[in-house]
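Worked example

This section walks through a single chain of length 201. The input is the sequence exactly as stored; nothing has been trimmed or padded.
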Amino acid sequence: MLSFDAPTHTYTVNGRTVPSVTARIAAAGLLGPAASFYTAHGAARGQRVHLACRHLDEGTDITLPTGEWGYLRSYERWRDAMRPRWTALEEPHYSATYKTAGTADRLGVLQGPVVVDLKTGGATRWHGIQLACYDLLHEDLAPRERRRLVLHLSPDGRMAQSVECHDAHDYLLALELLEGHTDGPNRPDDRACPAGIDGQP
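Given that input, the structure is written out below as tokens.
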């Protein structure tokens, strides 16, 4: 039985705390300079925008501060233009193989299987590794059958920009992390996909 406590970003399986994807990345020191840009305000904003985007996809009521509606419009314009078919919306998932949990923002189909992460913050280089971890946690498909997309939401409502992660090396690093090798012997390089920190697990 998997449980997720959002305020503490803690996953438990049958009452036992298990590491998250982001915790494994942080423990390996792969966040690099991006960690210095993390703020409680940015994390809270990211959580609100993620929830609003999920409610938009679910067709339920949306609540956002006035200054954050642009992020939602940015996502909506991308979604309406690209017409993805989502199969999972921010559903916590645990892999018994890797003894790790995580929450991919979106799983679905967009010209083939895809895993998507929404970002409202600045750019960093470890995101391709994060998405590779999410792909590996979901063992319904072979690794790399899913495309990995980062969706950068714009605060002014312009259509979100998607960046696809292609670097196969991300999977080697992801496997090291998920198998518990968190001493950080490797670092993502400039080929890795950019992303922001939104306080997501």
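What to look for: Strands lie at 2-5, 10-13, 16-18, 85-89, 93-95, 100-102, 106-109, 113-119, 147-152, 161-165.
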